Amino acid sequence: MSATGLEVFDRTVQLTNIWLDELMQELGPDRQHAYHVLRAVLHALRDRLPLGQVAHLGAQLPLLVRGVYYEGWRPEAGGQRERKLEAFLAHVGEGLQGVRPTNTERAARAVFATIARHVSAGEVAKVKGVLPAEIRSLWPAP
């Protein structure tokens, strides 16, 4: 029997839990923490990408993860153009304020690895292609 009565909602909850489970394998068995890390890294990435690339990546995310990705987004503000790894990781850290101490580099690597497993290789290549080398280095090797 369906938990929600709608297959699309049941499927997105299932997919989101898979993403969170993968993050918990890397970051520890705390689902709340995995959610906060996913949210912070997705927002930092989204805010770093050009407008068109934001939409292309968002289209490949599970529906529930997509909602987290777009939460609070202001496209008129334009993408941030952090060129340095430290600035990008500081952006992730800002999204983790009020959460237990987290290694932001490890968090970014874990989320990027999860994205790479679930988003098409072509889309991952496009996202990586618009990032500076320092930030691109956080993604898993193909």
The helix/strand class is mainly alpha
CATH homologous superfamily grouping: Uncharacterized conserved protein DUF2267
Radius of gyration: 15 Å
The tally of domains stands at 1
Residue stretches low in confidence (pLDDT < 50, at least 5 long) are none
- Report the CATH C-level class: Mainly Alpha
Q: What is the percent of helical residues?
A: 55-70%
CATH architecture: Orthogonal Bundle
Report the count of strand segments. 0
| H-E string | HHHHHHHH
- The third-level CATH topology is Globin-like
Counting DSSP H or I runs of 4 or more residues, the number of helices is 8
> What distance lies between the first and last C-alpha atoms, to the nearest angstrom?
39 Å
| Large-scale geometry | globular
Average pLDDT level? 94
Beta-strand portion reads under 5%
Task: Report on this structure.
The protein is mostly helical. The protein has one domain: Globin-like. Helix content is 67%, strand content 0%. The chain contains 8 helices and no strands. Helix 2 crosses helix 6. The longest helix has 21 residues. The model has no long low-confidence stretch (mean pLDDT 94).
Quick structural overview:
This protein is mostly helical and 142 residues long. Helices cover 67% and strands 0% of the residues.
Features:
single chain; 142 residues; Globin-like; 0% strand
